[in-house]
UniProtKB/TrEMBL annotation:
Keywords from the UniProt entry: Isomerase, Pyridoxal phosphate
Pfam families the record matches: Ala_racemase_N (PF01168)
GO CC, one annotated term: cytosol
UniProt key word Isomerase: yes
The organism of origin for this protein: Primorskyibacter flagellatus
Protein name: Predicted amino acid racemase
SUPFAM superfamilies: PLP-binding barrel (SSF51419)
Domain of life assignment: Bacteria
Matches recorded under InterPro entries: Ala_racemase, Ala_racemase_N, PLP-binding_barrel
Cofactor(s) recorded in Swiss-Prot or TrEMBL: pyridoxal 5'-phosphate
Isomerase found in the keyword field: yes
Recorded GO MF terms: alanine racemase activity; pyridoxal phosphate binding
Signal peptide start-end: none
Sequence intervals crossing the membrane: none
Length: 291
């Protein structure tokens, strides 16, 4: 962001950009810090999120080449984020052609030609010519072992590297449905929820502010009832849990992303932990939940 150029130059060797105004500010910050900051220009290839239109790429690249404080390192494109449409071999070839065109017009060799995210892996594994492409920006594939376009597990990748742990704060038998109707439709949307065949409701200290509830995988025997900003209500069998117990969930990418960014979620990194190692909810620095 334009408001963060000083920090970007301080902590990053390179950044992905589309706007000359931001690149100019990065250049000024780099000169101030006695650095040269590398620029990778994002080009629009069909996803319709960030990107310079291909016909404008050469002119903007030339401006970067001529600008003190920055250096043109490469170009990149985004696929399947906003549109959900997977990249094609033709799109990848077109990106390689653009890289050659920029070099021909501006001179410097492009060290990076970045062809998208985890959605580009099927293309990368497909045995097709890669052209100039030498970089992918992987997240979901590495973290969750999932192809984001098909939703299928990627062979050889772990799908359970992350677990969301939430604490039980209430277990009660309650009426199957709310006793009143809410006059405010917006308020009603935050409240309970459909009928559940058992009256046992378990409340967990986690909610919409902490993760994408729709992206959680429910443990066996657990039925989703509803959620509010900071509470998750599930149906459980009587006497299977108690207040203070933990419930564990697997997450999709949306749920993981929000949980990792939520300030009330504590993150613990574990490597082959013993089975007895669990979250101590009596820690004076406890958080609401744990990833």
């Amino acid at each position: 962001m334009l408001s963060q150029v000083e920090d970007v130059v301080q902590v990053c060797d390179a950044s992905y950009n589309t706007k000359i105004a931001v690149i100019t500010a990065l250049a000024a910050a780099a000169i101030k810090q006695n650095k040269v900051h590398d620029i990778i220009l994002m080009v629009e290839m069909g996803d319709l999120r960030e990107g310079i239109m291909p016909q404008d790429l050469g002119d903007i690249a030339q401006q970067v080449v001529d600008m003190p404080g920055v250096a043109l390192k490469g170009i990149g494109a985004n696929f399947a984020c906003l549109s959900g449409i997977a990249p094609t071999a033709a799109k990848m070839q077109a990106l390689s052609v653009l890289a050659n065109d920029v070099e021909g017009q501006c001179g410097p060799v492009l060290r990076t030609v970045s062809a998208g995210n985890s959605a580009s892996l099927p293309w990368a594994f497909g045995g097709l010519p890669t052209g100039r492409i030498n970089d992918l920006r992987l997240g979901e594939a590495i973290l969750l072992g999932i192809d984001p376009v098909s939703g299928h597990q990627i062979g050889g990748m772990y799908g359970d590297a992350f677990t969301l742990v939430a604490e039980v704060i209430e277990i009660n038998t309650k009426p199957l449905s709310p006793p009143i109707n809410f006059s405010n439709p917006a308020l009603a949307g935050l409240r309970l929820v459909p009928k559940f065949e058992s009256g046992t409701r378990t409340i967990l200290a986690i909610g919409h502010q902490d993760t994408d509830i729709s992206g959680l995988s429910w443990p066996p025997g657990i039925t989703f009832i509803g959620a509010t900003s900071d509470h998750l209500i599930v149906g459980t069998k009587p006497e299977t849990l108690r207040v203070g117990s933990e419930m564990r969930f697997q997450m999709n990418y949306s749920a993981l992303m929000r949980a990792m960014a939520a300030p009330d979620i504590q993150t613990n990194l574990l490597h082959n932990p013993p089975a007895s190692e669990v979250r101590d909810f009596h820690d004076p620095n406890k958080h609401l939940a744990l990833v």
